[in-house]
Specification:
about 350 residues; alpha/beta; Rossmann fold; 5-stranded parallel sheet; two-stranded antiparallel ribbon; 11 strands
């Protein structure tokens, strides 16, 4: 499916294009729901992250259709998809690719030829990313930030759009390597995926044991996603909304004047400047997904948990009292005043 040719003006000022993004979002959700039952918030979070040109970290127990979700999105957008299973013996070259010696069949001369790794795709599922050592985890950092990889002194650009969804298993911690804060900070959202409700689980079992398989069809092109990402970047946002994202970020730091007593009691470190950037982008994407051009304070509140929960470092008091980052974020949202 080919994307339409657009005018040179800012796309977000074109009401027809805003409607096109809104309709495209609903088409994607409808197509994804052919194979994914329920999980509305998870699907919304992943699509919002993609529209914001970010990457997502998903935490959930095995068997909750994380792979199927990402594969379905890539099929609905006609984008290339690769799954990388992270294991303790995985090497950085297994992700980025490597140079191998090839012999020219005519001249019989040997030369190095770069063989691309699985990171060269539009959509990457980094499955159980915390099962591999930090050296291998770091192979994704340049790809996530600069959309390129460097091997043997040569830099190779990655295809666009480019989206990484990494998963972590919260149950089994033996033999895992927690992601460093610098790596966690590059993920825009952290999404919790929970067990389905009783009705949804009944539908899942019924739908997957009949022998009939649902096919996901292309409803948008990769070029459409690139256009939508540009629209999110160029969408107008009020100074008040930006100020609110900055206030929430600063309120998460125990040493800041905006910090509540709970933040000072239970956090060792708060969120960095990327939080305000990601909350602003996420709020703009969420507004466009619902057909609005500019985001509101409510949009910021919705995405704030997804942005902050993996950026807050609890201290010993939080672990002893069973206080999770989400509890602290709830307190931050309650005590942070809205700008006038």
């Amino acid at each position: 499916m080919e994307a339409r040719t657009e005018t040179a003006t800012s796309p977000v000022r074109n009401g027809e294009l805003v409607e096109r993004l809104h309709n495209g979002y609903h088409k994607l959700k409808k197509e994804i729901h052919k194979v994914i039952v329920g999980q509305e918030n998870v699907i919304d979070a992943v699509l919002c992250c993609m529209l914001s040109s970010g990457h997502a970290l998903v935490q959930g127990v095995p068997g909750l259709a994380k792979t199927l979700l990402v594969h379905s999105i890539s099929d609905a957008l006609n984008m290339t998809f690769n799954r990388i299973q992270f294991t303790p013996d995985l090497m950085p070259s297994d992700i980025t690719g490597t140079d191998i010696i090839q012999e020219d069949p005519e001249t019989h001369r040997r030369r190095y030829e770069f063989i691309r790794g699985p990171v060269f795709a539009n959509v990457i599922l980094a499955d159980e990313i915390n099962r591999t050592p930090p050296k291998t985890q770091a192979a994704l950092l340049q790809a996530m930030q600069e959309r390129e990889v460097t091997v043997s002194g040569r830099t190779y650009k990655l295809d666009k759009p480019f989206f990484i969804l990494a998963t972590q298993n919260p149950i089994e911690q033996e033999g895992t390597y927690p992601l460093p804060e610098a790596a966690l900070d590059r993920f825009m959202f952290m999404v919790y995926i929970d067990y389905p409700g009783a009705a949804d689980e009944h539908q899942i079992v019924k739908q997957t044991t009949t022998g009939r398989e649902a096919d996901v069809h292309e409803v948008l092109a990769g070029e459409d996603m690139l256009l939508f990402q540009k629209m999110v970047r160029e969408a107008p946002v009020s100074d008040a909304v930006v100020e609110y994202t900055v206030r929430l970020t600063r309120a998460s730091r125990p040493t800041d004047a905006l910090a509540s007593p709970m933040v000072k009691q239970y956090l060792k470190w708060g969120a960095g400047p990327r939080s305000g950037q990601f909350m602003t982008l996420g709020a703009k994407a969420r507004a466009l997904m619902t057909g609005r051009v500019t985001p509101s304070f409510d949009d910021v509140k919705v995405v704030s948990r997804l942005v902050l929960r993996h950026r807050l470092i609890p201290n010993f008091n939080a672990e002893a009292d069973g206080i999770s980052p989400d509890h602290v974020i709830g307190d931050i949202l309650e005590h942070t005043k809205l700008p006038k």
